[in-house]
Specification:
This protein is mainly β and about 200 residues long. Helix content is about 10%, strand content about 60%. The chain has one helix and ten strands, in the order H-E-E-E-E-E-E-E-E-E-E. Strand 5 (about 90-105) and strand 6 (about 110-130) form a beta hairpin. The longest helix is centred in the N-terminal third of the chain and has 24 residues, at about 1-25.
Length: about 200
């Protein structure tokens, strides 16, 4: 299945990044990490909606509150929202999600992470969607999302973000009642400076 292949690809990417980061970390002592770290980010996303080959181009924005590091891992609370800039030929998906993220503090510049998010979303159907002899104009449902990615520092406050998510949308007009949407995202992160520093 497509979502399984994407999860395997993400796991391989995270393992590669983690190995590279660990190797780099042996060459120097990592800089101190702040006990708390607040960041905001904006990005563009390509979405495969999982319904009859539907695709969207979307904007995604979010915010993260990083908690004090523990054994090289920073637990983080994340909120993000995605809004389609087009309605697509099949459906347009918009969502608001929140959840937990684990940031791996492996080196100076690259910060891989994995996350699990949940929330609500809406699928709008451009021309109506026919299922079980009913015509749907929109569907509002819950979402579970699992994914990961990395932030690459370009300055003390700015990073480039690359992110991938696999999302399960429930209460969908399909025989199984669900669709699996995949989302690839790239954007810019801004980190606000506050809190005392501590070693990760």
């Amino acid at each position: 299945m497509r979502h399984v292949k994407i999860l395997l690809a993400l796991a391989t990417l995270l393992a590669t990044i983690s190995w590279a980061g660990a190797a780099a970390a042996q060459a120097y002592h990592p800089t101190a990490a702040r006990d708390l770290q607040l960041s905001a980010w904006g990005a563009v996303s390509g979405v495969f909606t999982g319904l009859d080959g539907g695709k969207n181009f979307a904007v995604t924005a979010g915010g993260d509150l990083g908690l004090p590091p523990w054994h090289g891992i920073r637990p983080t609370v994340e909120v993000r929202g995605t809004y389609p800039t087009d309605r697509g030929l099949v459906d347009a998906q918009k969502s608001i999600l929140g959840g937990l993220r684990a940031d791996f503090l492996l080196g100076h510049r690259i910060h891989p992470y994995g996350d699990f998010l949940f929330g609500r979303g809406q699928m709008d159907y451009e021309y109506g969607y026919i299922f079980a002899n009913e015509v749907y104009a929109l569907t509002t449902t819950y979402i579970d999302s699992i994914g990961g990615g990395f932030d690459y520092d370009i300055s003390d406050n700015l990073s480039i973000k690359v992110d991938g998510q696999v999302q399960r949308w429930g209460s969908a007009p399909t025989p199984s009642g669900t669709v699996y949407s995949t989302q690839g995202t790239a954007g810019i992160v801004y980190r606000f400076g506050f809190g005392r520093r501590s070693q990760p």
